[in-house]
Amino acid sequence: MNTLQRQVRVQNILLSLARELDASLVPPGWEQQGTFKERNAQLAGQLASRGVLVLMAEVVGTTLEEASRDIHTWITNYVNLYTLLAGNLLPSYPVVRSQYADDKLPAIVVVRGESSDIIRVIGGCVAPYIADRYGQPLVEEIGIRGLMDIILDELAAEDLDGKKRARLMAEGIVILRNLRNAPVRQLHLTPYIRDFTTPTQQIKVVVVDEEAADIPVRPDFLPETGELRQPQQRQQQQTASPPPTNRPIIPRKDTGPIGAQPDSTDNARHESSRPRSPFASWRQEGNNKPD
To answer: Average pLDDT, stretch 249-268?
Structure first.
């Protein structure tokens, strides 16, 4: 499939989704405005702002099993990122669904989330960031931390207490790192929603000191002898609150071909539909490598 054919395919998928969601997104004469790439980027961004994220990636693996596994893992990480953010910031909007747009390659996946704000941020911050960095040396840790800080800033997460923010940052960084290191080549669709091309150059990184966040305020006057003791209530809270961990969100194994069902302890849930996978036709045709 050449570049023009790919752009036409992407446009047809985006147009179908837009007309289903809001026909005003594609007014008469829309197809004569700009280039394929410009139109597709604009429409993909508008869809993301309405809770529909379109992602596209080429497989790097040379066998059917490798390609299918890698695409599944790649999209699972996007689903897990939505789940993490919704569970901690917008628990009233837990549902996220993912499905293939068609049965062709490169794989195009549609992710729909109840929270259009979260989908907008993932589509406008994470997706272009990951696409930009394919084939580059592994990004410095500060870049991933900075990206996670942008995500929380866009979602107005300033009300989180120090420990909860630190835990959310840690788990989000694990997912972003998995996306950054995924063995698939993610292709550009959605544009950045901020005026930057390299997030690590223009972001303010906030590193939360988890231990310092729990130190009581020093009083103005101290006794001349004896040690300063913490209130009993604070000691009980410290004992009851385990430290945050850096564990990734691990999907269950009994879900559909794309996406992941979070553990039952999470606040978000994922509904997976079962459209025909592009790898099914690959298997039937006897190919050992995608176009």
So the answer is: 39
